[in-house]
Amino acid sequence: MDAIVLRGRTVTLRLLSLADATALAMAASESRDQYVYTRVPDGVEDAKRYIETALADHEIGRRIPFAIIWHDRIVGSTSYLDVQQWRWPPGSPLQRTDRPDAVEIGATWLAASAQRTRCNTEAKHLLLSHAFDVWQVHRVSLKTDERNARSRRAIERLGAMFEGVRRGDMPGQDGTVRSSAYYSIMRAEWPAVRKTLEDALGR
To answer: Cα(153)–Cα(157) distance, rounded to whole angstroms?
Structure first.
């Protein structure tokens, strides 16, 4: 999983590294208007801490954090989170140890100049394609702060199914106890979601 590099027409996703701290801080500094509900580093030192935390989670198998590179510059970050390998009944042909059974896509943020462009759509296409076509996962999950209407609309445009709100789910970026809106895409739904994304990228 360390070697995962996902390349699209204008977007590349590769493992985040401490060397990205300055570029990540610059991307985050363009405008912070849309980061009310999202953990986004503020300054180079905070970017180093952000990356160190992400890589610590990566070391224990909880997360695969990516730098989002768009037109040859770092414009944000995204991750595979909650990487799950399920324990199937003994003898099940579905048991595997070389790839996940389910995964979450999250911790995504973009520089202001990359928002409302094809960048997020292409990044999601790369992440979902790898999850469903290479890993052959059974489910991809997405979640966001219940109050984050913009993020929820973006997830719904993908074709993800709204599952409900988990109350008191986790700490919110604003210091409150956050409730989270949960969404998912099942393997059988992936062809339709892929077409939606490819149609959007083709426009």
So the answer is: 6
**Dist CA 16 CA 108 (whole Å):** 13
* Residue in the block written with tokens 């702060």: 145
Whether residue 49 contacts residue 41, with contact meaning beta carbons closer than 8 Å, is answered with yes
Residues 8-55 have pLDDT tens digits of: 999 999 999 999 999 999 999 999 999 999 999 999 999 999 999 999
The beta-strand segments (E) located in the chain are 5-7, 11-15, 63-70, 73-84, 102-110, 139-145, 161-171, 177-186
Q: Are 153 and 116 in contact (CB under 8 A)?
A: no
Which residue ranges make up each domain of the chain?
A: 5-202
DSSP H or E segment with residue 138: none
Give every CB contact of residue 74 below 8 A, 6+ residues apart in sequence.
Answer: 20, 23, 24, 26, 27, 67, 68
- Domain spanning 5-202: CATH superfamily: Gcn5-related N-acetyltransferase (GNAT) (3.40.630.30)
Q: Give the C-alpha separation, 28 to 170, whole Å.
A: 23
What predicted TM-score, i.e. pTM, was given to this entire model? 0.95
82: left (phi over 0), alpha (psi -120 to 50) or beta: left
Q: What is the DSSP letter of 183?
A: E
Start-end of H helices in 60-189 = 118-129, 149-158
Q: Is the pLDDT of residue 2 over 70?
A: no
